[in-house]
Write a structure and sequence with these properties.
- The longest helix has 33 residues.
- The protein has 3 domains: 116 residues, no CATH class; 110 residues, no CATH class; 93 residues.
- It is 44% helix and 15% strand.
- The radius of gyration is 30 Å and the shape is elongated.
- α4 crosses α5, α9 runs antiparallel to α10 and α10 packs antiparallel against α11.
- By secondary structure, the protein is an alpha+beta fold.
- Bound molecules: zinc ion (ZN).
- The site of zinc ion (ZN) has 8 residues, from loops.
Amino acid sequence: MKIELHVSKIIELSNPKLETIVGIFQVITQELLPRLIDGIVLNFADEMIQNEDKAVRCERCGSSGTLRWKTRHGEMTKIITIFQPVLISQLQVECVNCNHRYYITRRLLGIAPRKNITDETKRKLGLIGALASFRVSEKITSLFGWRLDKMMIWRCVQQTAEEIEFDLDPEEEANGEADGTGIPIQGIKKRGKELKVFVQNKKNGGIRIAGLSIGDYDKDWGALFRPLIPALQRFVQPFLLVTDGDTGAFKALQGKVRVLFQRCLWHIPYQMSYFLWKDGVKRKSDVWYDCMSQLFDVCSLREHIDDETVIQKLVSLKKRRLNKLIGYCRSSGLTSCASYLSNARHDLFTSLENKLKGYTTSHVERVMRTVNLRINVGKWSLKGALNSTKIRLAYYYNGWDA
Ligand SMILES: [Zn+2]
């Protein structure tokens, strides 16, 4: 449809400074936008009614081409655009067939009934709220002419997140990393809940998010992985899962899917320093240095070792040294250290033994920094934390955009 626009406005300004002109422009657009929407919607409605458009059906009786005007200037309603909220008057029609009267403005604008925002605008605001704190979002949008409050942006974050689902991509690598991070939740002391992230490695060296959940520490990994079981089963080779925690949490998967577990070799010595402290070993004492250097050596591996015999010899060498260290811990009364290393030892060389890539959780560590930059601002409800993280990670890693 062609519509001829006539805009005439007398403006008064005291100087020709750019800031003044841009200010005037902002005032003009604020006045113009609702008039533009009103005019265009009215033109389309008029055409639809005059032509007795057969594609348009009465929302109650379903008959087509039976609409007539009730009012061209009905009750005002507020609509959110990416520039500003606008007030427009609603167009009301009546069905000749059943006498049902209703507003058609939202239908023409492509906005759901009783909503005041399109999905597109909602996603944009949702993304802003996931990238910056709600207060910063409010401030930044206000600099560009918005008058939106924090709650509006918060609501957009929640609704936008509903559309986002994570899953495994069967076309990408059959390996990934899983890790959790504590998050600040309203009404719970310290970092009371754990946000769990599962990333899948991509063939081009990048990563994508395959699963996300919030729950208690070290629990609920099943909730994250259960929906992924059909996707895991589609991989021809067993799926390699690298994690910095006890693999017991994931063992529930075994039997259902073929999963190989690899403990993060980078984390092992760092977690060991905690257990040494727990066993009362003084930091930087002789015993401390002995244990740590032994363990660093056990955990350091070169990549791209291909020779089968070298791999076998290397693994048995490392295992012997580790067992010696465990024996030393036991005989020295370092019980926490001994049981920590005993639990971990079965999953230390899985990747090497199977000639697979992936010894560390370095990718998911990076994802956690992306999470924390946002999640550390304020205290969250469980759902709020999950939703803003969903959008944020979908945007940074899975190609989702508003
Ligand atoms: Zn009707």
